# Entry
Amino acid sequence: MEYIRVTKENLEKEHICCAITNNKDVQVSSKKAWLADRFDEGLVFLKSAERGKCFVEFIPAENAWVPIEADGYMYIDCLWVSGALKGHGYSSDLLNACIEDSKEKGKKGLCILSADKKKPFLSDPKFLTYKGFLVADEADNGIRLMYLPFDENADTPKFKECAKHPHIDEMGYVLYYTSQCPFNGKYVPVLEKTAEENGIPFQAIHIESREEAQSAPTPITNYALFHDGEYITNEQMNDKKFLKLVNG
# Structure
C-alpha cells in the first residue's frame, strides 16, 4: 500500500478519506478548513493512496481538541480503516508510521480515546491492547484514554476533571460537536431541523477553538449528545436515528 501525507500544499487536491466527495460538499469543505488551521500546530494526516477510509490523523497532545493532560505525548485523533481495505494490515502500517513519526519528534508516547467496549467512531480497545496500549484513565461513561508509552518512566496521561464526570445542567437534547468530523457539517443541521419540526428541545453547541474543546464537559468533543444533563452517545445520527432515540 502506498500512503500519502496530506499537507497545506496538497490539501485541496487530495481526498480526505472520511468524506470522499468533491470539495464543494459541506462535509469536505468544513473538514479541510479545520485541517488547514491545524497543520501549523503539528497535525499529521496520513492516508492510503487508494480511495477509501484508510488513514491516521494525529497531533501533539497539547494541541489536541480533547480535555486531557498529556504533555509530551502525541494524540491520535482518528485511526480508521474500513470496507474492502480492512484485514490487510493497514491499521498496523498507519499506527507504526505514527509511532515512528512521534519517536523522531521526541514524544513520550501516544494516546487515543477508546472505550470499555467497542463503540462507533472509536478505536477498538482489543486492537489497541494487542498493540501494547494501556488504560490511562476512564470517565464515568466508559470512555477511556489509552496510551502507549515509549519510556516506562513516562507520566501517565489523564482526563481533565471537567471530562471525568460527563454531565451538564441544560435540559433537553444538547449536542457538543466540532468540525473535526466532516459528517457534522451535513448531519448537525439535519438534527436541528428535525428537532424543530417535531417540537423536540434541542441545542447544538459548536466547539470552535482548542481552548473550548479542552474545557468541554465530555471526553469526546467531536460529537457528544446529552439528554437532560446525561451523556448518551458519540454516534453521529441522521433524522431517522435521532427520532428513534427520542421515541424510545
The mean pLDDT is 93. The longest strand covers residues 73-81. The longest helix spans residues 90-104.
